[in-house]
Design brief:
Number of helices: 5
Largest sheet: 3 strands, antiparallel
Number of strands: 3
Helix content: 40-55%
Radius of gyration: 17 Å
Order of helices and strands: HHEEEHHH
Oligomer: single chain
Strand content: 5-15%
Strand order of the largest sheet: 1-2-3
Structural class: alpha+beta
Length: about 130
């Protein structure tokens, strides 16, 4: 995981952009998110704001979809998205291609949607 120290306004703009809205269109009550652990700020797919804890007294927030992956039909992730995950696993954990493949191949959203050889080729791309 990589975190960025940004202002509440910047985070609100990021959430708005994830929902294809104009910056400034989403307001987030950070105190409520910290207190409740999770707050829905809209009905869209990335309008659930979650507090993952704190780091050095600063709330660590993310936005995500409100549904349980077991209850929705998952779509095949784009190669560009998977490459971002692969690079993140390499950088943050120092994992090699075999370890990354072993981890990703069994995940919901990958399993059954990506052929193991095709996934391996994507992981080994430079």
């Amino acid at each position: 995981m990589r975190g960025y120290l940004i202002s509440v306004g910047q985070f609100e703009d990021l959430v708005a952009q994830e929902m294809y809205r104009e910056p400034g269109a989403v307001g987030i009550d950070v105190d409520a998110v910290v207190r409740e652990g999770m707050v829905r700020v809209g009905d869209g797919r990335y309008e659930t704001v979650v507090c993952l804890g704190e780091r050095e007294g600063i709330p660590v927030l993310t936005c995500t979809a409100p549904w349980d992956p077991a209850t929705v039909e998952l779509r095949r992730p784009a190669p560009r998205y998977l490459r971002m995950l692969v690079e993140g696993l390499r950088e943050s954990h120092g994992w090699d291609a075999e370890r990354i493949h072993s981890y990703l191949v069994g995940l919901p959203g990958i399993r059954g949607l990506w052929d193991a050889a095709e996934l391996d080729a994507l992981i080994r791309e430079e």
